[in-house]
Amino acid sequence: MNTHTISMLVNNHPGVLQRVAGLFSRRGFNIESLSVGQSEEPGLSRMIIVTAGDDKTLEQITRQLNKLIDVIQIAVAVI
After folding, report:
1. Once rounded to an integer, what is the mean pLDDT over residues 58-65?
2. CA 20 to 30 Å from 78, out of 3, 5, 17, 52?
3. Domain assignment of residue 39, given as a range
């Protein structure tokens, strides 16, 4: 099982973190680490999530995250 780092640019609105964490929870994916902070662009935040899983799991996660309206951009790295 690989560890993946998912970096997202999201709208800085109340409830965005809840929707992202809820997506992981509903799908049975575990968040090993989570960090959120202001991005270089006003009104946007950078969210970094570390999770473990195979490539199929990662594909499911990124596909579901892309469906969230407040997610602007996603980048994935394998650790």
Report:
1. 93
2. 17
3. 2-78
d(C-alpha 28, C-alpha 30), whole Å: 7
* pLDDT over 90 (residue 31): yes
Separation CA 45–CA 39 (nearest Å): 5
Query: Is 53's pLDDT higher than 90?
Result: no
Give the C-alpha separation, 18 to 12, whole Å.
12
The total number of structural domains that make up the chain: 1
Residue 26 sits in a domain whose CATH number is 3.30.70.260
Measured from the Cβ of residue 48, the count of other Cβ atoms closer than 10 Å reads 14
Instruction: Say which residue the tokens 């996660």 belong to.
Output: 61
Select the highest-mean-pLDDT range: 4-13, 21-30, 48-57: 4-13
Q: 52 with 32: CB under 8 angstroms?
A: yes
* Encoded tokens for 10: 């999201």
